[in-house]
Specification:
Layout lengths: L4 E2 L2 E2 L3 H15 L4 H17 L17 H31 L3 H27 L3 H33 L11
Antiparallel strand pairs: 1-2
Helix pairs in contact: 1-2, 2-3, 3-4, 4-5
Length: 174
């Protein structure tokens, strides 16, 4: 979600997140078919993310488009949408079996939030030709990305506590 590079090396490689997802999906696979599907797609994402750990820095003026990077980026976006959809659908399955309609509804809302964010990032491709709007949307998306990560992590933490029978969990306790 965040891409900070020094001399082409990603300081926060996505592969770390996909490894953590893999561990979670492995533990949850027996709870819902959605987690099993997400696990399979996540492995592909993990492998694709290896290609993004290093990208050569742009040494030319303007915007440089690398065809392989573009293909990997499009594949990653599509697979990420599938993985997050299955993740939240798996939560909905478990919550639905436990009669937790509040969590079912909230999981649906989180999916809408995630999808909307991803679609907004695609708008950046169009706004690249209008620099002031590109910068404004980029800044807004950076803030939205931080909010999205925190919101999704808090929700998943809460679900872990409440769906395992620990009762309501109102705060995040990593």
């Amino acid at each position: 979600m965040f891409d900070f590079r020094i001399m082409g090396v990603d300081l926060f490689p996505d592969v770390v997140g996909f490894i953590l997802f893999a561990l979670g999906f492995q533990a949850l696979a027996r709870e819902s078919d959605h987690f099993e599907r997400a696990k399979a797609m996540n492995i592909v994402l993990l492998l694709l993310s290896l290609f993004t750990i290093y990208e050569p820095p742009n040494t030319e003026e303007g915007v440089a488009v690398y065809p392989i990077g573009l293909i990997v980026g499009i594949l990653t976006l599509g697979l990420l949408l599938i993985v997050v959809h299955h993740l939240l659908s798996g939560v909905k399955d478990i919550a639905g079996r436990q009669g937790r309609t509040d969590l079912v509804e909230e999981a649906g809302q989180k999916w809408t939030f995630f999808l909307t964010f991803q679609l907004a990032t695609l708008l950046m491709l169009v706004l690249i030709f209008i620099p002031p709007l590109f910068i404004l949307l980029g800044f807004a998306l950076l803030i939205a990305a931080i909010v999205l990560v925190v919101v999704l992590m808090r929700f998943m933490w809460r679900c872990a506590g409440e769906l395992e029978g620990q009762g309501p969990v109102d705060h995040w306790q990593p």
